[in-house]
Amino acid sequence: MNNTKKLVWAGLCASLSFGVAAQSVTPPKERLLNRADIEAANPYEGIYSKRLYTDTVWITMVTIGAGKASTRHSHPDEQTMLFHTGRVRAFVGENEYVVGPDDILIIPSYVPHYFQAIEDATWTEVHGPGFNNSPRWENQ
After folding, report:
1. Which domain holds residue 48?
2. Which of 40, 52, 72, 110 is the most buried (most CB within 10 A)?
């Protein structure tokens, strides 16, 4: 490497390290919450949810009545779902699944999906990775 390239490389490394060192990073703090303290929402008829936003993901606890359904939708974040009670028909892209207690369904980013409850059901879903432009500390 010639001297000019070495000098440019050294300058680039120095400016990058200065930029990193100059940034102040405040690590997130732990929080203890109770589900009862999170406000419930009713996004669709017969579907109730409680949503918690954290620093990098959002978590939704869902209750759906038998025969009720969400609308077909997609979003930029990956969605991971853990089903607790009941059975639900999940339509993900071109696939259809019947899911129930202890099943885990992972829906990739931007894949259209919707759900129809075969019977009363509950599940928890996590959306991420990363901050997803939702209200940061607001529970919905």
Report:
1. 35-128
2. 52
Grouping H, G, I as helix, E, B as strand and the rest as coil, residue 121 is strand
3-state secondary structure of 71: coil
Token reading at 67: 């025969």
Question: What is the DSSP code (8-state) at residue 134?
Answer: S
Looking at the domain assignment, is residue 18 inside a domain? Answer: no
Specify the CATH number for the domain of residue 46.
Answer: 2.60.120.10
**Cis-peptide into 129, omega within 30 deg:** yes
Q: Is residue 93, in this structure, part of any structural domain at all?
A: yes
Cα dist from 81 to 90, 101, 117, whole Å: 11, 11, 14
Q: What is the pLDDT along the chain (140 residues), one digit of tens a residue?
A: 566 655 555 555 555 555 555 566 777 788 898 999 999 999 889 999 999 988 888 999 999 999 999 999 998 889 999 999 999 999 999 999 999 999 999 999 999 999 999 999 999 999 987 544 554 434 33
Number of domains making up the chain: 1
